[in-house]
Every structure is written in C-alpha cells, then in structure tokens.
Write a structure and sequence with these properties.
Distance between the termini: 32 Å
Largest sheet: none
Helix content: 55-70%
Radius of gyration: 17 Å
Number of domains: 1
Number of strands: 0
Oligomer: single chain
C-alpha cells in the first residue's frame, strides 16, 4: 500500500484513532479535518468556544477598543 493508506490503517487501528497532520493540508485533508471537528468525540472545538465565551469580556478589556481579532483557522 502507499504511504497514506498505510498511515491511515495504522492510525485508525489505534485507540483513540489518529491521522497524521501532514494529510490535513491539501483540499481533501481540509474537508476531512472540518468533518472531524464537527464530531461529538472531537471536544476541542466546543472547549475552545466555551473558553472564548467565558473570557470574551476580559479579552476585550485587555486588547482595548478599536482592535479586531481575526482567527484564520
């Protein structure tokens, strides 16, 4: 098998399941990553949102007026 097949089989046979991040950077990898982050088992998205919501007032006070925060990822 090619490298991606071998990597996928190895990673998806583990608990917890993993895939090497090197496959996340092409168009298909980006689609897969987006799908993964929407799964209930992927807690990072909801945890990040909860932290931002809980801290948004403090963050806004710390950075001051007229500042725009842009999150590219």
């Amino acid at each position: 098998p090619d490298d991606i097949t071998a990597d996928a089989l190895a990673g998806l046979s583990q608990t917890p399941k993993t895939l090497p991040s090197k496959y996340f950077y092409d168009a298909r990898g980006s689609q897969l990553f987006e799908a993964i982050t929407q799964q209930p088992e992927y807690y990072l998205t909801s945890t990040e949102l909860s932290l931002l919501e809980a801290s948004m007032t403090s963050i806004a006070q710390a950075i001051g007026a007229g500042v725009h925060v842009v999150e590219y990822g």
